[in-house]
Amino acid sequence: MACRGIKDERARMATILTVPLMNCMAKIPLYVLISMPGISKERKAYYEKMANQAIEKFYKEIGKENPYAKILAGKGLIEFARYWDLYKIAMMGAKGKEEKKAIDEKFKKKNIEFYKVVKRGKYELDGKKIKDKDAKKVYKAYKKLVRVRKKLRREIKDETIISSYLGRVGRAIEPFTRLAGFNWRINIALISSFAAKENSVATLGSIYQSPPGEEAQLGERIKRREKGWTPLHALAIMLFMAMYPPCIPTLIMVRLETGSTKWMLFATIYPIILGLTIAILVFTGGNLLGLSGIQAMIAFYVLAIIFTAIMGFIKREPKMA
After folding, report:
1. Which residues lie below 8 Å from residue 189, measured CB to CB, with a gap of 6+?
2. 124 has which bridge partners?
3. Residues 242-270: tens digit of each pLDDT
4. Model pLDDT, residue 150
5. How far, rounded to the nearest angstrom, does the alpha carbon of residue 169 sit from its chain's CA centroid?
6. pTM of the model
């Protein structure tokens, strides 16, 4: 008996130690499903054309006579883009004037010409304050280029998600899940939760991106995109997620612990059916009755308590020995 207990404990420990690995492995198919097959060659060519037009416009705005035009020509623009991004990231993480001054000195030594541009043409050199109109002109033109670049990247990402295998599934089940208030975007996030529940937030963050040049909380971004949403939408999503089945590694653990594939499938399918039923009743029922989010929540909890109390009075038949 002791040997058997030791073996069981070893098996349990081995299973626990493999959970992080299984969690990581579960995310790989999710990445493939949300990224593949990608956008078509025609769309890639379109976005490449738009990017090239934005670059041409940038050079046109700064002018050929601008001394920075030669510095930013060809690979110079790519190097400057890296420099720009690194400088902005460093400054965002800086705390206090002294740290910002140290970052300025570091980037000044790295490339003085690029430094002049990122400082909007206002910088100190040999103790003298200088105002460089040409650098300021390049700064303004590059800011526009950055906005266009972010916009194109967001559109490419949106189109990739929509045309992905996961996007197609999300759209296919939308006519049914709409009864619970879920559109195809929410469907994608919920499906991604199979890998890990926190993936739903990351997926929603990818779908509901901020406009170029703006940073906003996820809730605010969803609010801007989904104009007709009400608190009932949020309530239905929360209740569904509360009932949602555990992630894939946990389901694998259920299979290993019970030794039954049936229990694993039950732990997967039953919560989905139950959660979707509750979400539909709350969302569709709430809309039909004209309830607000709070009223629907109160009604749901009252009914849940009544149902639990009724179930408590049901007597089970004693099992025969």
Report:
1. 199, 200, 201, 203, 204, 207
2. 129
3. 887 777 777 777 787 788 888 888 888 88
4. 84
5. 18
6. 0.61
CB atoms within 10 A of CB 47: 15
Please indicate whether residue 9 or residue 261 has the higher confidence score (pLDDT): 261
Nearest in space to 25 (alpha carbons), one of 188, 200, 194: 194
Residue 215: other Cβ atoms inside 10 A: 8
Total Cβ atoms within 10 A of residue 27: 18
Neighbours of 305 (CB within 10 A): 10
Among residues 28, 105, 30, 283, the alpha carbon closest in space to that of 179 is found at 283
Are the CB atoms for 195 and 30 separated by under 8 Å?
Answer: yes
Closest CA to 85 of 61, 67, 107: 107
pLDDT at residue 13 tops 60 = no
- Residues 94 and 100: their CA atoms lie apart, in Å, by 6
Two structure tokens written together for 315: 């007597």
Side chain identity at residue 232, one-letter code: L
Residues with Cβ within 8 Å of residue 96, at least 6 apart in sequence: none
C-alpha distances (whole Å) from 241 to each of 93, 107, 267, 273 are: 34, 47, 14, 12
| H or E element at residue 242 | helix 231-243
Count the neighbouring beta carbons within 10 Å of the beta carbon of residue 126.
5
Cβ-based neighbours of 176, under 8 Å, separated by 6 or more: none
- CA dist., res. 33 & res. 182, Å (int): 20
User: Which among 149, 150, 168 is positioned nearest to 209, based on CA atoms?
Assistant: 150
